Amino acid sequence: MASETRDTVRGAQGGSSFSLSDPTVRAVFYQVLVVGIVVAVGWYLIHNTLDNLSRRSIATGFGFLEREASFGIGESLIDYSPRDTYGRAFLVGVLNTLKVSIIGIVLATVLGTVVGVARLSSNWLIAKIASTYVEIVRNIPPLLQLFFWYAIVSDSMPPVRQALNPIPGVFLSQRGLFVPVPVADPVWGEMAFALALAVIVAIFVHRWARTRQARTGLPFPTGLTTLGLVVGFPLIAYIAGGAPTALDVPQLQGFNFRGGAVISPEFFAILTGLTVYTAAFIAEVVRSGIVAVNWGQTEAARALGLNSGRTLRLVVLPQALRVIVPPLTSQYLNLTKNSSLALAIGYPDLVSIANTTLNQTGQAIEGVAMIMGTYLTISLGISIFMNWYNKRIALVER
Description:
Layout: H1 2-16, H2 23-55, H3 86-119, H4 124-138, H5 142-156, E1 164-167, E2 170-173, E3 176-179, E4 181-182, H6 186-216, H7 222-240, E5 247-248, E6 251-253, E7 256-258, E8 261-263, H8 265-292, H9 295-303, H10 308-338, H11 350-361, H12 364-393
Antiparallel strand pairs: 1-2, 2-3, 3-8, 4-5, 6-7
């Protein structure tokens, strides 16, 4: 009895002792040590930076965002003038970056999918053209491609006063493509609301049709229904709003056109360059995803009487998406980050405007931190959405 008591005491004492020989204790100790070192190094760098800035009487903080910017921006999605603040100028840069990134992602996805499918075509010429495009474009740095597209536009287009006028109201020159746009009217907001409502209704119809087909086996024309909703709802809103037809037509005034909308050479070059470059990588992602699908799936679809187009759309691509989506996310992130190359051709993106701001204010740390934070936020947003979509299409084991 006494022996058992002594063993129990020793076991209790041994269990409460701190020993690095215990794997759990050792793991916790090293993790705490690493975190402590990181915090100490970060505190040292921040303290040292603030101390040096104070000694040199350099202002810190983000108060400069409320000061007048005093510089112009060539194009923006919102109203801007040199009398506006640095904060609004920075917002213009963020919106311009988002515009290039979103449109580029859509166009690169479409072009990359077409080229990826074309690489697997049984037609020798189509397959070779697609393969040549991929191999050439992927091996040329994107910055050189931007210079190439910008040179094509700037060198091949005529001056403003000799602008091409292929269609009444449309002008093409070294300053860009000028086109008429509808005059501001409340009906356009109503049409946007009608379009959003149509999309919501189409989603519910799609879910209902899928449930109905699973229960009865009867298909429902969701494609035509969606098209009718997306076109019909805005059209009804347009007619109900009076069907305005007034247009703001570009007019030559001085050395440039005024009015209408313009696609600048800088925007065309950055959008085309990023789309063509990224689409080459997406094409390989799509091709590898299709090849990863077992050939038996295609044979089974053809045995059921499906043609090649329906087999690809209904059988192969839905299964290939599970392989395509993860690397496709990386290409979307690369396109977004590569948009910073717009600085080289003069497109007023986030980096370009932030660079002008920090040169005028001298607050480089804050400017660079804002650039990094913005790109981080955009990239995380893309990653979160694509991860959600990847989980949504993943196979669920029972």
